[in-house]
Amino acid sequence: MQDILEAIAKKIAEGGRNIAFTGAGISTESGIPDFRSQGGIWDQYRPVYFDEFMSSRDARVRYWDQKIAMWDGLEKARPNAGHQALAKLYDMGLLEAIITQNIDGLHQESGIPGDKVIELHGNTRRVRCMTCGETSTVAEAKQRILDGDPAPECHCGGYLKPDTISFGQAMPQKEVEAAARLSSSCDFFLVVGSTLVVHPAAMMPEYARRAGAYLAIVNLSDTPYDNACQALVREKAGPVLQAIADMAEEYR
């Protein structure tokens, strides 16, 4: 594996347009469970679809119950070695941006500027009104729920919802287009902790591959691109990314 890590680090150290793409596998090491694997979030809760949320107060109450149950873990989570390694690469000028499927905000907490993190599935630390679009903090909504308002609404009368993409909800066009542009023009594309099966996010490595970018994958399980990448590492993200960042610093 050492040879593979060195090859990835040398490619990063060359500079150019280096992009990282992250999924749940980088955040599980911070204690955040993923969604789809056995024991994941959807094993514990039946997801509330977007049309249910918008049409039924009972569904909104159930949705907020689920979110409150999940927030304790999210509030305690902190960036791990993987997040910190990507932040180190950014600080060295060796990482242009991060495209993420994650909704936990840990990349920003690790020190990556918010405008350099493209959040394809939103951010659970924000709350958005489904009518006027105004955003507020999770803390405000949580306090209202604890005070006895199980499905809080905006001052305009719209439904408040964590600023994340639910099943059946349209993807954020601006973010998807930005991610596609970055992927289609990069020199190096690093996938971390994603099975690459959820679309349109899963198309990003394909755009990078078509553009001739060097494709590296760090993931514990199989992905559809394992045979199409230049480097494949089946290990936990934290130690691997830490080693890669340290090597890239030496090779720079």
From TrEMBL:
Active site: 121
Tagged with keyword NAD: yes
PROSITE patterns per UniProt: SIRTUIN
Matches recorded under InterPro entries: DHS-like_NAD/FAD-binding_dom, NAD-dep_sirtuin_deacylases, Sirtuin, Sirtuin_cat_small_dom_sf, Ssirtuin_cat_dom
Keywords of the record: Metal-binding, NAD, Transferase, Zinc
Ranges that cross the membrane: none
Deacetylase sirtuin-type domain boundaries: 1-252
Broad EC category: transferase
Gene3D superfamilies reported in the protein's UniProt record: SIR2/SIRT2 'Small Domain (3.30.1600.10), TPP-binding domain (3.40.50.1220)
Nucleotide-binding is among the record's keywords: no
Residues spanning the signal sequence: none
Coiled-coil segments on the chain, per record: none
Domain of life: Bacteria
A GO molecular-function annotation: metal ion binding
Annotated EC: 2.3.1.286
Binding residue positions for Zn(2+): 129, 132, 154, 156
PANTHER family to which the protein is assigned, alphabetical: NAD-DEPENDENT PROTEIN DEACYLASE (PTHR11085:SF4), NAD-DEPENDENT PROTEIN DEACYLASE SIRTUIN-5, MITOCHONDRIAL-RELATED (PTHR11085)
Name recorded for this polypeptide: protein acetyllysine N-acetyltransferase
Lineage, highest ranks first: Bacteria, Pseudomonadati, Thermodesulfobacteriota, Desulfobacteria, Desulfobacterales
